[in-house]
Amino acid sequence: MRHGERVGRLRRLASPAQSSFHTYSLIHVWHVRPISWAPTNVRSLIEASLDPLVTIRGEGKITDVNEGSIKVTGVLRGKLIGTDFSDYFTEPDKAREGYLQVFSKGFVTDYPLTIRHRDGRHTAVLYNASIYKDVGGNVLGVFAAARDVTQLVNLGRQTSAHRRELQLLPINAVGGPVDRFSLRPTCKR
Q1: pTM of the prediction?
Q2: What angle, rounded to 10 degrees, do the helices at 20-32 and 3-13 form?
Q3: Contact 74, 81 (CB under 8 A)
C-alpha cells in the first residue's frame, strides 16, 4: 500500500469528531515505521562501528558484542555472550577494576587494556565506557567501546628505543652527537 492510499484509508476510518491532529498522528506513526523496526536499526548501528563494542551486566558478564569484538578476540558472538568480560584481557584484574569503576563513577575514558586473541595475538586498546539505563532510570549495564592503539604503542616503543640510543652516543665539543666509528661530529654548526 502506497503512502497516499494509507492516508486516504486512515481519513475514511477517522470519525468526523476526531481532530485533524489525531488523524495526522495516526498517519505519521503508520508512515514512519512500526516499533519493531527499532531493534533492527540499533543492531545495524552497533555493527557499523569498526571498533569493538560490548555490553556488560553488573556481575561482569557479556550481554552483547559487535563484529569488531569477534574479530579482536577470535571468539564467536554466541561463545562471548554470557562469559566474563575480564577473561579476554592480559590483565583480567585490571579489566574487572575498569568496569567496576564504570558502575561506581558512571564512566571511564581512555582506560588502557590489552585484549588477548584466541590465537595468542595481543591488541592494545583504550576503552571508553559508560553505564546505560532503561526508561525508568535503572542501570542496566555498561556499554564499552575499545579503540585499537597497538600502532601508537609500537611507535612509542620505537621512539623510546631511539631516544636511549641517542643518549648512548658521545657528545662532541659543540654539544652534538658524534659518529661512533669515525668520532667526527654528525652535525655542523
Answers
A1: 0.63
A2: 140
A3: no
How is residue 178 written as a grid cell?
A: 658524534
Q: Which helix (H) or strand (E) holds 145?
A: strand 139-148
The amino acid that residue 111 corresponds to is Y
Query: Given the DSSP bridges, would you call strands 53-56 and 107-116 parallel, antiparallel or unpaired?
Result: unpaired
| Residue corresponding to grid cell 553505564 | 131
The whole-angstrom separation of Cα 51 and Cα 138 is: 27
Question: Rounded to an integer, what distance in angstroms lies between the CA atom of residue 50 and that of residue 19?
Answer: 47
In the structure grid, which three cell numbers stand for residue 104, read together? 561506581
Q: Where are the domains of the chain?
A: 3-32, 50-149
> Which CATH code for domain 50-149?
3.30.450.20
What span, in angstroms and rounded, lies between the C-alpha atoms of 129 and 148? 15
**Cα–Cα distance for residue pair 105/101, rounded to 1 Å:** 6
What is the bridge-based pairing of β-strands 107-116 and 62-65?
A: unpaired
Q: Quote the distance between the C-alpha of residue 20 and its chain's center.
A: 45
H-helix or E-strand containing 78? helix 77-80
Cell readout for 159 is 621512539
Q: How confident is the model at residue 51 (pLDDT cuts 50, 70, 90)?
A: very high
Say if residue 18's pLDDT is above 80.
Answer: no
What is the spatial distance between Cα 70 and Cα 117, in angstroms, rounded to a whole number? 9
Q: Which residues contact 7 (CB under 8 A, 6 or more apart)?
A: 27
